[in-house]
Specification:
135 residues; mainly alpha
Length: 135
């Protein structure tokens, strides 16, 4: 028995599944970075930014002292909830002069850093969302 296969639809569905998987993984990774960011004044946490294509190279005046990182998470979600079917690079940026020093162990609150610890957890997150999106 012959069966008709709509390859265009299959490709579109796969691309959409990959897009959703990447965006969900990125949002979870960003959340983990934000929540691992030590909070004193909230300025370091408030300076995490997300962008597509190119990194943001400026600081913000945003302060986020919330336990959930809700201020920067809301901004990140607005960016990451837009489809990215062009599959541009997703950038996480923090341009405060002392961000790198904190990442490299300067903080007693988070001596193992924020980004490098999160990167180690990347693969399970990606696999989780790939299963959810059936890709």
């Amino acid at each position: 028995m012959a069966r008709k296969v709509d390859f265009k639809k299959a490709l579109r569905d796969t691309r959409e599944g990959v897009d959703k998987t990447i965006r969900a993984t990125a949002l979870d990774m960003f959340k983990d970075i934000v929540l691992r960011t030590p909070v004193d004044t909230g300025r370091l946490r408030g300076n995490w930014q997300v962008s597509y294509g190119n990194p943001i190279k400026t600081e913000t005046d945003t302060v986020d002292k919330s336990e959930s990182g809700s201020v920067v998470m809301g901004l990140a979600a607005n960016t990451l909830n837009r489809s990215n079917l062009n599959f541009e690079t997703i950038w996480f940026s923090n341009n405060l002069p002392y961000a790198e020093r904190i990442e490299n162990g300067y903080s007693r609150q988070q001596p193992q850093g924020m980004v490098k610890v999160t990167i180690l957890e990347y693969q399970p997150l990606l696999e989780k969302y790939a299963r959810i999106n059936k890709i």
